[in-house]
Design goal:
DNA Methylase, Chain A, domain 2, mainly alpha, 2 domains
């Protein structure tokens, strides 16, 4: 049974290239996050170390779901919870940036659902498109549509 080969060899997309520089549409950071931002050291991936410094503790068990984004990094997996902080502007990530990070079309209608929640709970559409293209190329090429069968999907 052949395995599906997924080797996209795509260039990394750094947050700085998709950031909405000078945003005025972001939500205000929670006060608990704002008080810890001065303790963040460039390169910290989340607020857990800043929180420990703020509290003068050696334990790192809080604020691990508050992610920090820098211009020169590729954003990690989005989640429906937690907060993403854009370090360069000391602000929350806005809906446009969530759309860009997750590859949803900018004009996608989320109806009345929270954009961050939907993006965090979804597989990025661009990723699905690439996988689908490879499935068609590797599994369905030359097969009549009525007889589709892809062993790589089993």
């Amino acid at each position: 049974m052949p395995k599906l080969v997924l080797d996209f060899d795509a260039a990394p997309i750094y947050f700085g290239s998709i950031a909405d520089k000078g945003s005025t549409t972001h939500q205000k950071l929670w006060p608990s996050i704002e008080t810890r931002l001065p303790y963040v050291e460039r390169g910290d991936q989340n607020l857990k170390f800043a929180d420990a410094k703020y509290r003068n503790k050696n334990t790192f068990n809080a604020f691990f779901s508050t992610q920090i984004l820098y211009d020169n990094i590729v954003p990690g997996a989005l989640t429906s919870g937690g907060i993403w902080v854009y370090y360069e502007e000391k602000r929350a990530v806005n809906d446009l940036e969530y759309r860009r990070m997750s590859s949803f079309p900018i004009d996608y209608d989320f109806l009345d659902y929270n954009v961050r929640y939907v993006c965090g709970m979804s597989v990025p559409p661009l990723m699905i498109a690439h996988i689908t293209k490879e499935m068609i190329k590797q599994c369905l090429n030359g097969i009549k549509k009525e007889t589709y069968s892809c062993p790589a999907l089993v």
